[in-house]
Amino acid sequence: MTNTNYIYNEFIFRCLFFFLISGLITLSTIKPEGFDHDYKQYLYLFELYKNSIDLGFGYEVEPLFIYLSRLVNFFNGGIVALLFIYTAVALICKCIFIKRCTKKTSQLVFFVFLYSVIFYPIHELTQIRISLALGLLLWGSLQKNKIIFAMIMLLTMLSHYSLIPSVIFISLFRYLNDKIVRTQVLAFIALLCFVICLLLIFYMSRQTIKYDGTNMPFYFYFLHPYSLIMLFSLFYMRRYIKNHFYYQLLYILAMLYYFLFLSFLFLQSQIAAFRFMEIALFFMFILIFIINSSFKSSIIKMLMLILVVTMFLYEHVIAIEPILNFDILHNSFSKMDTFQ
Question: Which residues form a coiled coil (predicted)?
């Protein structure tokens, strides 16, 4: 009887997963023109590069987008086919990673539901390049074959430049893990993160990105709710990552991109900084989710709830509104300045 119930429940969860994934992919693929503020830009880039003959290292977009545009155009496809490829591959890769880590279809369905609420609108529905890159990164980290791993990591770097640091650190972490160097790994990589951040600060010192000339002081962004959530999560989740490769990997990546967030704040490059914070929150969300499936801790559940609520507000304020309306606090400060 128990085995029959298990088979029945598994069938129900697989059907739910299929319908959820199909619905998300369909929405991202057939969304009307102008549904999100990146659609026209991607349409313009697709038309620009689909027949181009350059090497594919343009400033506007990464090489993989250019090559996929050419491939889709070769088979007489349009922007819809390109959106389908990006969305389908990104979602499936992320789901493969979650399934491998949690081992439960019910947890996979729960993940898709939460993901559709907080990250789907700002990734698969809007920022398709970073979405694909993150999916490839997670899927590639599962590969045991070094050649396949290297090929997927190369595709990740060609998908979005902001994940080049993560590819470097995953490769380094795998090498250290193969050498059974476990005790000093986190400390070593944390120090390396700091050194790389200093080098980036030096390299980017003359490149400043501002919100249409509007700048807030550094402490405002450092004490931003997203920053405080990351700090608390990094401090608390450290106790759960011992002797588990993927827990440690996600923790290190979240820590790396939080360091990058702080580094670009020093540069007064808030847009770039919050892109890195968004990636850090993604890795932390994945980490908290898969740990929560194994450890039933009330604090972990609370962290998950806080992360979901704040990211829900984040995506509704940022992904849908223009970049000037970056978040509620920024708007509030701007209105106060105007009133004064």
Answer: none
Q: How many CB atoms lie within 10 A of CB 334?
A: 16
Among 28-42, 53-67, 132-146, 159-173, which is the least confidently predicted range? Answer: 53-67
CA atoms within 13 A on the CB side of 96: 16
Residues 113 and 228 in one domain: no
Distance in angstroms (rounded) separating the CA atoms of residues 148 and 324: 41
Tokens of 226: 């997203």
- At residue 121, φ and ψ (nearest 5 deg) are -65, -30
Same domain (yes/no): 33, 150 = yes
Task: Show which of 127, 159, 191 is a domain's final residue.
Answer: 159
pTM of the model: 0.81
Sign for the pseudo-dihedral over CA of 273, 192, 160, 30: negative
Residue 214 DSSP class: B
CA 252 to CA 57: how far, in whole Å? 29
Q: Of residues 324 and 214, which shows the higher confidence score?
A: 214
Predicted confidence at residue 326, as pLDDT, reads 38
Domain with 199 in it: 162-340
More confident of the two residues 282 and 104: 282
Residues near 67 by beta carbon (within 8 Å), at least 6 away in sequence: 56, 158
Q: Rg of the Cα trace of the chain?
A: 20
Of 129, 159, 189, the one marking the end of a domain is 159
Of 251, 234, 250, give the one whose Cα is nearest residue 141: 250
pLDDT tens digits, 315-331: 555 444 433 333 433 44
Place of tokens 């193969």: 178
